[in-house]
Amino acid sequence: MASLQKIRNHGALLIAIVGLAMLAFILGDFLNSGSSFFNRSRENVGVIEGQKIHYTEYEAAKDQLTEVYKIESGRSDLDEDLSAQIRNQVWNMFMMDFTLRAQAKEIGMDVTTDELSELCIGENPHQIIRSRRAFCDENGQFNRQAVVNLLQAINQEDGDAEQNANLQQAKTYWLYWEKAVRISHMQEKYSALLQHLFKANSLDAEFAFNGRQNGVSAEYVMQPYFAVADSLVTVSDADVKKLYKQHKEQYKQTPNRAIKYIAFDIVPSEDDFKAAEELLTSLKEEFQTAEDVSLVVNTNSDIMYDGRDYSIKTVPAQFKDFAFAKGAKAGQCTDILFENNTYAMARIMQAGYSVPDSVELKAIVEGGEDQELGWFAATDLPKNIADPAFAGKRGTRFTVAQGMGEQTYEILDISAATPKVKLAILSREVTPSSKTYSAIYNSAKQFIVANDNAEALEAAAQEAGMAVIPQYNLTANTDKIGQLKNSRPIVRWAFEAKEGKVSDVFECGQQFVVAALTEVNDGNYRPLESVRPELTYEATNNAKAAYITKQLKGVESIEAAAEVLGQQVQATERVSLADNRFGNAGMEPAVIGKTIALGENQLSEPIQGNMGVFVVKTGAANNTEEVFNADAEKAQLSARLAYLPYQAIQLVEDKADVVDNRANFQ
Length: 666
Fold this sequence. Notes:
Layout: H1 2-9, H2 11-33, H3 35-42, E1 44-48, E2 51-54, H4 55-73, H5 80-107, H6 113-121, H7 127-130, H8 144-154, H9 161-197, H10 202-213, E3 215-224, H11 237-247, E4 256-265, H12 270-289, H13 293-300, H14 320-323, E5 337-339, E6 342-356, E7 358-364, E8 371-377, H15 383-391, E9 397-402, E10 405-414, E11 417-429, H16 434-450, H17 454-463, E12 469-475, H18 488-494, E13 506-508, E14 511-521, H19 528-551, H20 558-565, E15 570-576, H21 589-598, E16 607-608, E17 612-621, H22 630-640, H23 644-654, E18 658-660
Antiparallel strand pairs: 1-2, 1-18, 3-15, 3-17, 4-12, 4-14, 5-6, 6-11, 7-8, 7-10, 9-10, 13-14, 16-17
Helix pairs in contact: 4-5, 4-9, 5-9, 8-9, 9-23, 10-22, 11-19
């Protein structure tokens, strides 16, 4: 009963506890059931004008553009810089597409299916289509039939696996450029619409004409700011803060980081050089005498022996004199040579013969148009094609197995035979061993342990004679730091670390890199301290302008102003609103405007300019006698405004509602 009474006494507390437990259970169940919703939101690479870009869509677009680059360039591998370029180009395409769509929807503009078809396969296709090499003939001229053939081919469904894979690649290629045409044409239509808005009217034409027509002669005195000692004026912190507030919109920024880093080069040690030389020395006798030299070479050398023919132009330079010496014959060998961190020796396998350098081929296409492929060296072709191609004569046809089928080629031409030699080359470049690699890595690690903050790291590096390299304005989407290879992980670290921290060791190509985070800028605007020097300079000039103006108080003539300032009176024959420069003083728009506003034979108050303070005395009017041509004037002004539609499109992108999460996926 006592226990029951205790429960009754603490009933309210127990109810609260049970209630909280039930709430936790309910919330937990909700969060678990809703986890897929939250996960989906985290899978978005970005949101542009309300359009979500799921990472699968983004990756598909990257893969598509990668295929396009491979087809356009003929390359199968893409380096780090090109991969980053592709990622940025894909994002920019999404930006342009979604921002233009949003604007076009507001005004009811679109690119119709018929328009797109005409732009892609019509009589006069879009320049994007016309400029593709895939659609050009052997003379580099656009061939519309090539476009039609491609579209017919990619709509086929029957074929073997290899053919279907090729058709899918071609379809990927076409769909990318079709989309590019649609976006480009949308931009062109939008620009053309804006162009009608940015045209000069009659009032603009008259104002511009009068501004150029009406002028006045003038004398002036100018006191440069640099002529006033900084010690004569005072600039307060309030002055600087006031200017910062006035100019704040100029200091917008994307959240960024600044780092300083040091690099430890991953280079071979003396032991690595010794080991490479000893290896070649141990193989020397076998290399010089072995009947099957390919086994020795291909097991140990950086240069495989494939029986290729070297000409005097293609043979490695260090072996040229040896291979093409008078009396050179099979079996002769060089000693071990060392050049460019490489130990190597060569053995002549065959000499004293001549074969062509290159061959021109054509692919024979059954039921279609034959394709001229161009000129090839033997090393440019697979061996099963090179052997019959270089063994044949002009006009000879040969067939080789290719994929699941066969391909016939015709020899269109073949170059004249030139002297050749077959060389077996046993070559070993000296590279860092795992022991050397570990030693350099451990040195970098020890450097971090001994210097675990930014200041200590920089001081120790300088004392050790190591270069400390600063890198500023790294954004979350920065792909590469300077020339450091594979440096994207350093950027990710910089956005996760605290200011002043030192990183772990990063492997960047042939360097180990240690970075220190020196600045964290997460605000929407650059902080006052980062722009204080330039604002202090401006505030100082403002104070000097006030100081000079005070000196000129009560001055009633240009000569008196010159005497007070200790400057010479200068003259300019004509000042008009069409001018960019004021006399010899440079770009001074405020001085020009106030001079014109004075009228004839008037003395100005002190005018604060860009470079100093001016006093101006106008003379007589100095007008031109041009004949006003409203149409010509409007055309000239409109031409100057031609860039505005493109600037407006850029402004649309800058002002777009964008959430950029790419950094989470790179």
